[in-house]
Amino acid sequence: MTSVAIQNHPKPHILIVDDDKEIRTLLSEILEKNELIIFQASQGSEMRDILKSKKIDLMILDINLPDEDGISLCKEVRSSSSLPIIMLTAKTSPIERVIGLETGADDYVCKPFEPMELVSRVRSLLRRSKLNSNSDKQSEEASKIHFDSWTLDVLGRHLLREDGMILSLSTSEFNLLKMFIDHANQVMNRDQIMDHIYGRESGPFDRSIDIQVSRLRNKIEHNPKSPAIIKTVRSEGYLFTSKISTSI
User: In this predicted structure, what is the pLDDT of residue 113?
Assistant: First the structure.
């Protein structure tokens, strides 16, 4: 098997949560050959213990677990953390992929998976997480971006509403919103968005971008069914229309 080195030092820590020992072992072998440090958990309680005791940079989470399902665990983690999450889903169940993204996963890989596809997804998500983190640290002159009734705290990676309510953002939600802000008043098609968020083009049946946009709209729009901040341009893509200002 060809090794694809992930240039990110110190070595990233990956948590694999799957009740199938063979899959955990296979994933561990694949990722360890690519300069990653692996931790394993077979259930939710072990996942929590590792997240409390170790610095984890990315989690691979199976959607079907015997004690607590991956959807519930993803929602739990996402409620307090922007940890990048890749869901493992059944190839025959597209609804699982939709639900996984709606509950906060940043990407998904279908079983059975191609080893190098998984490595590519991990590399892409780690790279984007690291680039965004570095960008945040270098953006103190504009660490707060104001639009509509919201303030995006770039360093804190969360949204602050004008009434003081704080909303957490997943890695992909933050990346998506930041991309729209950086390209305000420009129509962005699905392939462009997919490249910014996942580092790849969208497939003909890939609904992940629409799901991510819908989820972001549900958080920031006054009326998600009639969006005024992120508008749909029929047959073209999406358009971020709010006026933007920045502050330190």
Answer: 84
